[in-house]
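agent> Task received from the user: take the single chain below, predict its 3D structure, and emit structure tokens. No templates, no multimer pairing.
agent> Plan: (1) validate residues, (2) run structure prediction, (3) serialize to tokens, (4) report one or two observations.
agent> Step 1 OK, no nonstandard residues flagged.
tool_call: predict_structure(input=
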Amino acid sequence: MKRILVTGATGQIGGEVVAQLRDAKCRVRALSRSDSAANLPSDVETVQGDLSAPDTLDAALKDVDAVFFVWLGSLEAAARTIPRVAAHTDRIVLLSSPHRTPHPFFQQPNGLRAIHAGVDRLVEDSGRQWTILRPGPFALNCRNWWAPQIAKGDVVRWCYADAETAPVHERDIARAIRLS
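)
tool_result: status=success, residues=180
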């Protein structure tokens, strides 16, 4: 039975990852900056730590087989954290962005795109097995963006109206960690 550390376990994607790992009978550990993570099942071990402070991660990383990694910080902080993570686990699964997808929505120049590309490289160069997930728009976000527009008249206004996109459901993103 694998032990997997989930960062972002209380978020929409991380919560789905936790649910699916539990269904697969994995031992789940959740990283939390506070003493306890809200709304996690009692069989999910919660360990305190902060991804931006790598020296706080050793307890969370002890005896884990894989890490589901969501990065929201700076590239400089990632450069300190990813080697620490890699020193404790065999596999890293990173939730990134579709910054490599040749779609106008995902090719906008911005700082976050550059951070995602840099974190991807750090994970690829970590010396560990890795899976990088680069889903398009999350279905739940699209529902939240589009539902009010549809309710007001069945017209959805969206940038790049001629560019096709397919929202990805959170369950499908989470399923990838079970398959990797």
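agent> Step 4: summary for the user.
The helical segments are 12-23, 58-61, 75-86, 111-124, 139-151, 170-179.
agent> Done.
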